[in-house]
Each structure stands twice: as C-alpha cells, then as structure tokens.
Amino acid sequence: xxxxxxxxLEPPRAAELDNTLEAMQQAVxxxxxxxxxxxxxxxxxxxxxxxxVGLPLNRCLRLDSGEIYDIVAGTFFLCAAxxxxxxxxxxxxxxxxxxARRFARPEIYL
Length: 110
Hints:
alpha+beta
C-alpha cells in the first residue's frame, strides 16, 4: 500500500508497505497503534509505546484552532482507513501530496 512515512527530523516521503502487521511494525519500530486525528478516513499509524520507550518527539497534532493537543513520538505513517473496512489501504495521490505539505516541516520540542 502507498503511505506517507514521517520520520523524526526529516521531511515526509511516499513509501510502499506490504499490508501486513509485520511490515507496519517494522516501519514504526515496534507495536502499532492507529489513531484517527483527521476528518477524512485517514489513519496515523505510530509506535504504540513511543513516548514510554523514549522515542524522539516527531510532529504535533493540532486542533482546528491551532492548539497542540498531542505530539507523536517516533516514526509514523499515514494510510487510508475506509470506515466500513477492517483493513488499511493506500492513500490517493492527492492525499499523499496534502499530508506531505501538512507534515513538511520537521519539528523540535523542548
């Protein structure tokens, strides 16, 4: 599946992952967690224990007001998550471009 991979302190990049648990775990470096911070059916897949194991802080998630409500630790990726499906799918080219712009700037947190 075509995903947007977002490593800490690096620009995001399009990547192709096998749609398997093992491939997703390898991409984030451990057990996965899916969160749904967007209005459209796009999942953010990250390391389930990223903050607990001390992975570097990566990108923030913001409310519509711009206020930060969470920070993702470690590498994560975005993929499509259709509402009536139990599987993840490829992002469209438009989604890849839009989210690449959204997460384009690496962020540093103190």
